[in-house]
Design a protein that fits this description.
The protein is of the alpha/beta class and about 240 residues long. Helices cover about 50% and strands about 10% of the residues. The protein has a five-stranded parallel sheet, sandwiched between helices.
């Protein structure tokens, strides 16, 4: 499955303890917090991980190697992940496992219709869920031999990665003239805040997205999101 990967000289055999050993997972995700969760899941499973933070970067990766698994977030800064999923589904040879990812459970039907093997809802912290999702779509020769102990552990992403995400959004909110960028910030912040169990910020971002969808005035909602983000960045500076 990695036959175009120049770094893969020899296929490693999966084990019961590391059932994804030998696999390369390309994660197309703009959130560092979410990526850190997937990094930890891959590390504990034996998989190699690479990251692309936008569609353009993902396509650059795919020109040089073919991953075993690709996980694509739907809300990306330069377009919808559904477009990439559809493209990869039609490609020959097809990547073995294509997974669409979103914090919106209502996106599942769209992900499957685009051609993905599975839908992965955020937040992503369960090791057993992550492993089983991928293993269920691997061919027999990539399955770990013998019995596998199901691990119910959860990973905990680095809080500093959450701070990095907030800093990035703070910069984008400085320019409120781009309404499309406001939409991107609203969905991004809502998804990351939900993953971090930051309910106050998640609700503020949801209110901003709702105002934009209704065509209602949104400046005050955007200002509240910006203020809450600054509060979280102040915590980082205090540390």
């Amino acid at each position: 499955m990695d036959d175009l990967d120049p770094f893969t000289a020899r296929r490693k055999q999966a084990t019961a303890a590391r059932p994804l050993l030998g696999l390369t997972v390309l994660v197309v995700e703009d959130s560092r917090f979410t990526c850190d969760a997937i990094r930890l899941l891959c590390l504990r499973s034996g998989a190699r991980i690479r990251r692309a933070d936008c569609l353009a970067a993902a396509r650059r990766h795919l020109k040089t190697y073919r991953p075993s698994v690709i996980i694509v977030d739907l809300g990306l800064p330069d377009g919808s992940g559904l477009d990439l999923i559809s493209q990869l589904h039609r490609a020959v040879p097809r990547i073995g496992v294509i997974i669409g990812m979103s914090g919106d459970d209502l996106s599942e039907n769209a992900v499957l219709a685009a051609g993905a093997n599975e839908f992965l809802p955020k937040p992503i912290t369960s090791l057993s869920t992550f492993q089983n999702l991928i293993l269920s779509h691997l061919p027999y020769d990539r399955q770990p031999p013998g019995l596998r102990l199901v691990c119910n552990r959860h990973v905990h992403p680095d809080p500093l990665a959450y701070q990095d995400d907030m800093a990035q959004m703070a910069e984008l909110l400085c320019d409120r003239s781009e309404s499309q960028m406001i939409d991107y910030v609203a969905q991004f912040v809502r998804g990351v805040a939900q993953s971090a169990e930051d309910t106050v910020l998640a609700q503020a971002a949801a209110d901003l997205a709702s105002a934009r969808a209704k065509g209602a005035p949104y400046i005050s909602a955007a200002a509240r999101v910006a203020a809450l983000i600054q509060q979280r960045l102040q915590k980082k500076r205090a540390i």
